[in-house]
Amino acid sequence: MIRCKTKMELRDVLADWRRAGERIGAVPTMGALHQGHLSLIAAAKKLSDRTVATIFVNPLQFGPNEDFDTYPRDMDRDLEMLKARGCDLVFAPERADLFAQDFSTKISVAGVGEGHCAKTRPQFFDGVATIVTKLLMILAPDVAVFGEKDYQQLTVIKRLVRDLDIPVEIIGAPIIREEDGLAMSSRNQYLTSPERAAAPVLFETINLAADKFIDAGSGWSKIHDWAAAQILKAGFSKVDYLNMVDADTLTAIDKPDRPARLLAAAWIGRTRLIDNIAVSPPDSA
Ligand code: AMP
Known about the structure:
The structure is a single chain. By secondary structure, the chain is α/β, with parallel strands linked by helices. 38% of the residues lie in helices and 19% in strands. The chain has 2 domains: 2-173, Rossmann fold (3-Layer(aba) Sandwich), CATH 3.40.50.620; 192-280, Pantoate-beta-alanine ligase, C-terminal domain (Pantoate--beta-alanine Ligase, Chain: A,domain 2). It is built from 10 helices and 9 strands. The protein has a 6-stranded parallel beta sheet with strand order 1-4-3-2-5-6, with helices on both faces. It has a 3-stranded antiparallel beta sheet with strand order 7-8-9, with helices on one face. The longest helix is centred in the middle third of the chain and has 16 residues, at 124-139. The protein starts with a strand and ends in a 6-residue tail after the last strand. Adenosine monophosphate is lined by residues 29-30, 36-37, 39-40, 146-147, 149-150, 173, 175-176, 183-186.
């Protein structure tokens, strides 16, 4: 597995592969890898001849009081995991290689980049959209794989790629979960053991809430209140949102009459967990 720390080193390797007519698949990450990330590598490998993972904890997407400094970092372990999965190249740049001192450009996606996570993390999607655009320009992959775990992020990335005519295919990959249903996340490392024991309630509750919504046929707000109470009762400290939305536009829906997504974010102790599930209209099953 090749490791590149700079854009210059990367450019030569990618040029060789392109000359040989090889298809390049990209998997952007912030490291602290788990099986969720590795599933994206497996998906990219199926769709390309050469798989490139990026590891970069993107400062642009963290707010001033968020966990940029404490975000888990373990480069040696990440490299071992990627090598074992047959990843061909890791691009792990230093901040200075990506951002000039006077870097001043921002990519901002209106609509799907607003609401939900953006409500409490107003800088987040501009930060994600800007770094992803940069990585797609630098790598120029044929295909890039992102997890449905970050469903709003995936939607934002699909939208910016379409709007800016970036020549890459964006693939969404399913959420990988622990055995008890908790969605894998680098931030799960923050959980204390009682918090870890309570954490699967988020996934359990959104599943029950989605079933209730389908059965009731309308009226998300009542089910929302029931679900939020369940989550708080299990020991979560705050529910950021539980939104039933159209699966493409992420706008609120009140009837299960089209493909929907239930998006959720809640705090347990000092850790913010997100999750989501697909909600299919009854006659599509
Ligand atoms: P991150 O390192 O958290 O920025 O995530 C990098 C990529 O991995 C993103 O496309 C995430 O959506 C994806 N990802 C993170 N957790 C999971 C998971 N549990 N299942 C599938 N994909 C995931």
